[in-house]
Specification:
Elements: H1 9-21, H2 25-29, E1 32-39, E2 50-52, H3 54-67, E3 68-80, E4 86-97, E5 103-115, E6 118-126, H4 128-135
Parallel strand pairs: 1-6
Antiparallel strand pairs: 1-2, 3-4, 4-5, 5-6
C-alpha cells in the first residue's frame, strides 16, 4: 500500500538501506514513526530485545557505527504479504567488525510494517552467533548497544 507521503513499504525499505550504506543513521531514524517498535527476537544476552519508540531506536543507532562498519547489502529480496502494509525481507549484509577489524557476513529475515510512509514495526531476525563474533566473541558484552 502507498502511504500518505507516496512511499510503499518496499520503497521505504530500499530507501532505508541506501541511508544505512551511506552511514546516514539519523536519516534512517527519521523514517520511523514516533511510536515505532524494533524487535530482535534472537538477541543474545545483554543485547536489547526491543526498542520502543523513535528515541530508543535513535539511541541504538547512535551506537551502531561503534560496532559495525556496514559496507554492502549484496542481496535483498522483498516479499509482499496479504497485508499491504507488511513486507517480509530476506537480505544479507557485509561489513567489518569495529571491535575485531574482521569482515563479517550476516543473513537476516525481517518482518516490516509501514503506515503512512513510516516504519511502525520492524522484527529483525538475525544470527546471534554472528552478532557475538561482531562484538568481539562470545565473552564480549553487548552493554554498549543497550543504551
Amino acid at each position: 500500500m502507498t502511504g500518505t507521503n507516496g512511499t510503499t513499504p518496499e520503497g521505504l525499505f530500499r530507501h532505508g538501506l541506501t541511508l544505512l550504506l551511506a552511514k546516514d543513521y539519523g536519516g534512517w531514524v527519521d523514517l520511523w514513526a514516533d511510536d515505532g517498535v524494533m524487535e530482535f527476537p534472537f538477541a543474545p544476552p545483554g543485547a536489547p530485545r526491543s526498542l520502543d519508540g523513535r528515541a530508543a531506536i535513535h539511541a541504538y543507532m547512535t551506537a551502531f557505527p561503534d560496532h559495525i562498519d556496514l559496507a554492502a547489502t549484496p542481496y535483498a529480496e522483498i516479499h509482499r504479504t496479504g497485508d499491504p502494509d507488511v513486507v517480509i525481507v530476506e537480505m544479507r549484509s557485509e561489513g567489518r567488525s569495529v571491535a575485531t577489524g574482521e569482515p563479517f557476513e550476516m543473513a537476516y529475515v525481517a518482518v516490516v510494517t509501514v503506515k503512512d510512509g513510516l516504519f511502525t514495526h520492524y522484527r529483525d531476525y538475525w544470527n546471534p552467533l554472528v552478532a557475538l563474533e561482531i562484538a568481539g566473541g562470545t565473552d564480549a558484552p553487548f552493554a554498549g548497544w543497550a543504551r
